[in-house]
Amino acid sequence: MSDEAISQEEIDALLNGGTLGNPVPAEPAAASTAPAEGAAALYPLSEMERDALGEIGNISMGSAATTLSVLLGHKVSITTPAVSVDTMHAIKDHYPMPYLIVEVGYTVGIDGNNILAIQAQDASIIADLMMGGDGTNPPADLNEIHMSAVGEAMNQMMGTVSTSLSTMFNKKIDISPPKVSLIDLSTEEHVTDIVGQDDPVVRISFRMEVDGLIDSEIMQILPVKIAKEMVSSLMNSGSAEEAASAPAPQPAAMSAPQPMPQPAMSAPQPMPQQPMMAAPAQQPMMAAPVADYGPQSRVAANVPVQPAQFAPLSTTPVAVNDANIGLILDVPLQVTVELGRTKKSIKDILELSNGSIVELDKLAGEPVDIHVNGKLLAKGEVVVIDENFGVRITDIVSPMERAQKLQ
Q1: Among 9, 50, 229, 324, which is disulfide-ready with 83 (CB 3.0 to 4.6 Å)?
Q2: What would the DSSP string read from start to end of 336-374?
Q3: What is the model's pLDDT at position 279?
């Protein structure tokens, strides 16, 4: 070794296992998007597969936006998705905030689970709209009732997504009820059991807008296996449709059929001459081949035919056997008098307290309904008898109406 001083770079090369003449190259920066060594694990999707997943997400979430618009009573727009490959650890570092994690499992057609992640603040607005609010004063903290309301909205959304996937993949796709949990990605270490923290996952990001109330991002997280299965199902569905729409191959040329002998009873009669337009040279007419199914059935002729005669129906009522009615005279029935009905949202029900007034759909003095075992039987008016309430029957439903209600 020479007496010259060793530079810092050479010292680092020796410590890293290199030699003075061939220092170990520096590792690429973490922000680089180019595939590094082991690209099959870090970048498991081709460009074609990313485009296919984007198209699947665009169609399915477009249908889900329509369903969510009906549930919330506000216009919902979900824009074109962006597909990327990440890990749960990288997603946690990039989105250090509370998220509502909705885990949905596929039960038919696709094997596995996927995750829909919504920011907790956006989930609060959705919960407020689901419970009858206007979305301008969402709850600060999501309790069990709010999460249940959001879970129902996500269940309806993912149900619409599965219907869209069934149409695209040309096979039945079904899901299980969602599992909803509130997780702070900045502090929680464990997010889901479907993938590990460092396993590659497919993240499909959508921009969701709700009528001036929400302008945020939602994420659908898929294991790579399910993502590739979806792409394969889409490709196979397209190949099957092309094969079904392709014209059937023409049969090979066959020798001209030999004319069949005409039976004696079906000798052709000469046809009257009629003026005809000019046409190409006519081919000799041949009798159409008839499949031989055994002895031919004979049609009888000169057989007298008369219209069918039926006895007139009796219109008299059928006599009721009192003895049979007596067998059920002691059967107890539940008689209920209904003063009125109304509909309330979950928010209104939770706000009820002592002294609250509930308005019914009937006016004061209007007849009340009398139900027997849940079936409307009569109408009447409320009276007081010896400090007890009673009902005076004023109108009985006709037997025809009662029979229709029993059906």
Answers
A1: 50
A2: EEE-------HHHHHT--TT-----SS-TTPPEEEEETT
A3: 45
Mean pLDDT over 89-111 rounds to 89
Q: Are residues 86 and 232 in the same domain?
A: yes
What Cα–Cα distance (Å) separates residue 355 from each residue in 351, 352, 358? Answer: 11, 8, 10
Decide which of 276 and 67 is more confident: 67
The reply to whether 160 falls in a domain is yes
In the predicted structure, residue 142 carries a pLDDT above the cut 60: yes
Phi, psi of 73 (to 5 degrees): 75, 15
Q: Is residue 194 helix, strand or coil? A: coil
Its domain, for residue 381, covers 334-339+362-407
Q: Which residues contact 200 (CB under 8 A, 6 or more apart)?
A: 41, 42, 44, 85, 86, 87, 224
User: 144-169 vs 224-245: helix axis angle to the nearest 10?
Assistant: 40
Q: How far is CA 272 from CA 269, 275, 284, in A?
A: 9, 10, 18
Kindly state the average pLDDT of the residues 200-219. Answer: 91
The arithmetic mean of pLDDT across residues 369-374, rounded, is: 86
Q: What is the CATH number of the domain that holds 196?
A: 3.40.1550.10
On whether both 195 and 61 belong to a single domain, the answer is yes
Residue 375 lies in a domain: yes
Average pLDDT estimate for 326-339: 83
Q: Specify the 3-state DSSP secondary structure of 150.
A: helix
* CA–CA distance, 139 with 124 (Å, rounded to integer): 6
**Residue the block writes with tokens 């004063």:** 137
**Is there a domain that residue 303 lies in?**
no
Report how many domains make up the chain: 2
State pLDDT tens for residues 234-265. Answer: 888 766 555 555 555 555 444 444 555 454 44
Closest CA to 115 of 195, 169, 55: 195
pTM: 0.51
Is 128 domain-assigned?
Answer: yes
